[in-house]
Amino acid sequence: AAFDLRARIEAGRALGTLGDPRFERREGPHGTYVMPPLVEVAGGRYPIGDDEPIVYAFMGAEGQAAAHVPRHAVTVGGFRIGRFPVTHAEFACFLAAGGYEHERWWATADARAWRRGELPSAGQKANNRTWRKRFQDQPELLRQMVAEERFASDEVAARWQGWMALDDAGFEAALADHGQGRLVTEPRFWHDGRFNHPSQPVVGLCWYEARAYCAWLAEQSGLAVRLPTEVEWEAAARGTEARAYAHGGAFDRLMANTLETHVNRTTPVGAFPDGRTPEGIDDLSGNVFEWTLSLYGDSAVDEYETEFPYPYDATDGREDADAPPDVRRVVRGGAWNNAHPIARTAFRDFNHPDYANDNYGFRVVVAER
Q1: DSSP 331
Q2: Cβ distance 79 to 367 under 8 Å?
Q3: Does residue 139 have a cis bond before it (omega within 30 degrees)?
Q4: Which of 281, 306, 282, 279 has the alpha carbon at shortest distance from 295?
């Protein structure tokens, strides 16, 4: 079975190089674009959330998530969702069309300020503070990660070794210097050979970039393209039977690209056909975290506390597209470098809208206008 997975990965890479027939190249008013295959999700009442916390391990520490509690039903209107996360090949068309240069795709003042490098990098700073605490709580963890070459580069590893020698004030000063904004012209990791094959999900995108792409694709295609709300994402992943994982009730490491699969990078979209939902949607558990429209809340009180708990209520402000950059957005699905409990379909994760990493991507939804 592991050999079969390697063969599927190689086949996916070959398809991406030759031109994947599952995607249709079209011409729009702003040049060439790629139309993704879409899967219909019927409107109706869907089970959302669950009644038990999810226990997970991350970097040797155990956590417990309960933001998805309690289980309840939500009426969801019908929509179509991308069969796959948006690929590097799809996003390349946005770059070729000058997507980062035209402000029309960057719908809010915050999005435009982020692109110009004028926001304070709240997401990256919060992430670095979290990792500093982990390294302080687990003194061997940094050495272990350096030895296992788990940092993106030797430069990043050396930076962390230097940061850990600083006191708190020195670390905050270093963060402020490191977080100085810059004009953004492409996603992070765009040129990283581990993640930039045409058939791999595009990664290193923040929420603002994902929304800009959706706005561009909407005008290119004439369709109402956007990010999914988190309940749309959950309805697509769980179905009416409330699947624990996109493929069913029990985890199988050969049905999803998670830490247990040991691929150690993103895989070509659709490389896990047995992990496909019964409705025909791929990669909803594992591979990349996927941005949603929905808010999780400010982190000022507690890092893991949500201002928008379940039961879900679309009218309580959680679908505010204009919320400021210090309010975190929901991401779903887990990723290639996370253990499988985080890939459960009910798991609600989060980050600031300016955050981007090598395990963050997105998929599109097409709704009625």
Answers
A1: E
A2: yes
A3: no
A4: 306
Query: Among 20, 185, 184, 186, which Cα is nearest to 118's?
Result: 184
Helical residues (DSSP H) of 84-206, grouped into ranges: 88-96, 109-115, 122-137, 141-147, 154-163, 168-178
Residue 140 CB partners (closer than 8 Å, separation 6+): none
Residues pairing with 349 in the sheet? 331
| The two structure tokens encoding residue 333 | 């699905």
Q: Contact, 224 vs 241, CB < 8 A?
A: no
Q: One digit per residue, pLDDT tens: the chain, 369 residues?
A: 566 999 999 999 999 999 999 999 999 999 999 999 999 999 999 999 999 999 998 766 678 999 999 999 999 999 999 999 999 999 999 999 999 999 999 999 999 999 998 887 777 777 788 889 889 988 888 998 888 877 867 888 899 999 999 999 998 888 877 766 678 999 999 999 999 999 999 999 999 999 999 999 999 999 999 999 999 999 999 999 999 999 999 999 999 999 999 999 999 999 999 999 999 999 999 999 999 999 999 866 567 789 999 999 999 999 999 999 999 999 999 999 999 999 999 999 999 999 999 999 999 999 975
DSSP codes, 29-84: TTEEEEEPPEEEE--EEEEES-SSPEEEEETTEEEEE-TTPSPEEEEE--EEEESS
Q: Residue 217's Cα: distance from chain center in Å?
A: 18
